[in-house]
Amino acid sequence: MRYSIEGEPLPVVICNLEQGEVMITESGAMSWMSPNMKMETTGGGIGKMFGRALSGESIFLNRYTAMNGNGMIAFASSFPGSIRAFDIVPGQDLIVQKSAFLAAVSSVDLSVFFQQRIGSGLFGGEGFIMQKLSGSGTAFLEFDGYIKEYELASGQQIVVDTGYLAAMTGSCKIEVKTVPGVKNMLFGGEGIFNTVITGPGRVWLQSMPIAQMANTLRPYFPSNNH
């Protein structure tokens, strides 16, 4: 499979597949393709379907196979930002925000990742349910806005506002913590929870989470309440 990523800040990844090569994607992510790409919708098993439903994603995945010769398929981002290609290696999982997964070769496995401390996670928003990419092969992720990457040493931490964590390697640990101090919680304007990531590992942070942008724009939208 050969690919090119074009058109930032509204990018698209164009994948050129050899005959028989397969890609998987979330339902509705395909933008255009050659007519010899065969689509098959699959759930991948009850457990995985339930996990995706719990995370708010579509319970089905689409498989696209190049039939009778080479094929082409494109996946466009749904929001201004970046599309990044990641090489998934056995034993080195990648943990990503729920909406980041765009497409991957069929040897990449997509599952749900639960933040370990359920009590804090239930109220911590994005820090609770994420997606885990494992297996092997190339995966494409879409991120919101500009991406900043950090390499954390063992024990080194970074504190991230909810929603700004785009991805991290599976070697990192994640914990949702309350903002210290009642006054800070109520009047600080930063919310009640932060996400603390502990190394070793690599972290990708996004500058413009779509949920954050929606909250910023909401006061400017007409209201039905008159």
User: Structural class, please?
Assistant: mainly beta
The CATH architecture: 4-Layer Sandwich
Series of H and E elements: EEEEEHEEEEEEHEEEEEEHEEH
Largest sheet: 6 strands, antiparallel
Indicate the CATH class.
Answer: Alpha Beta
What this model shows, in words?
It holds the Pfam family AIM24. This is TIGR00266 family protein. InterPro entries: AIM24, AIM24_sf, Trp_RNA-bd_attenuator-like_dom. It comes from Roseburia hominis (strain DSM 16839 / JCM 17582 / NCIMB 14029 / A2-183). There is one protein chain. This protein has 226 residues and is mainly β. The protein has a single domain, classed as Mitochondrial biogenesis AIM24 (Double-stranded beta-helix, 4-Layer Sandwich). Helices cover 12% and strands 49% of the residues. The chain contains 4 helices and 19 strands. The strands form 4 sheets. Strands 5-6-3-10-13-8 form a 6-stranded antiparallel beta sheet, with no helix packed on it. A 6-stranded antiparallel beta sheet has the order 11-12-9-16-19-14. The longest helix is centred in the first third of the chain and has 9 residues. The chain is globular, with a radius of gyration of 19 Å. About 8% of the residues have low confidence.
Q: Short summary of the structure?
A:
The protein is mainly β. The chain has four helices and 19 strands.
